């Protein structure tokens, strides 16, 4: 009889099939939630990096346009200065318009 008590003491209690399935379901839900969260964080990270790269490209384009506009502005200032030159204006007046400097008799002093 002592042997039978030992033999029965080594026998494992029968497992409850519902408890194991429930633990698996809880761990599955937990892992699914973690995976969804990691996926969302990863997608947000990739999206933010793409936005940063896109903004850097747009900033580079804007800087290039700014430098081009500055160069164009300098070129136009030089052109304006050359067009305002008194020697050029006098040459156009004499050549194209047929004007001449006034003589002393043509000058009238107003007091």
Question: In which range does the helix fraction lie?
Answer: over 70%
Mean pLDDT: 86
Q: Give the topology string: H per helix, E per strand.
A: HHH
The secondary-structure class comes to mainly alpha
| Dominant shape | rod-shaped
Specify the biggest β-sheet.
none
Q: How many DSSP-defined strands? A: 0
Work out the strand percent.
Answer: under 5%
Distance between the termini: 150 Å
Low-confidence stretches: none
Q: What does the radius of gyration come to?
A: 47 Å
**Count of helix runs:** 3
Quick summary of this structure?
By secondary structure, the chain is mostly helical. Helices cover 77% and strands 0% of the residues. InterPro entries: Cell_div_FtsL (IPR011922), FtsL/DivIC (IPR007060).
Question: How does this model look, in words?
Answer:
The chain has three helices and no strands. The chain is mainly α. The chain has a domain at 48-97. The longest helix has 67 residues, at 17-83.
Topology:
Blueprint: H1 2-9, H2 17-83, H3 86-95
Subcellular location: Cell membrane
Keywords: Cell cycle, Cell division, Cell membrane, Membrane, Transmembrane, Transmembrane helix
InterPro entries: Cell_div_FtsL (IPR011922), FtsL/DivIC (IPR007060)
């Amino acid at each position: 009889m002592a042997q039978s008590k030992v033999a029965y003491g080594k026998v494992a209690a029968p497992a409850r099939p519902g408890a194991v399935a429930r633990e698996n379901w809880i761990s599955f839900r937990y892992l699914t939630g973690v995976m969804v969260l990691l996926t969302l964080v990863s997608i947000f990270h990739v999206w933010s990096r793409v936005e940063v790269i896109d903004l850097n490209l747009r900033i580079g384009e804007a800087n290039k346009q700014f430098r081009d506009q500055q160069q164009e502005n300098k070129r136009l200032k030089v052109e304006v200065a050359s067009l305002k030159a008194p020697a050029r204006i006098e040459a156009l007046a004499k050549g194209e318009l047929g004007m001449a400097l006034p003589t002393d008799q043509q000058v009238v002093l107003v007091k």
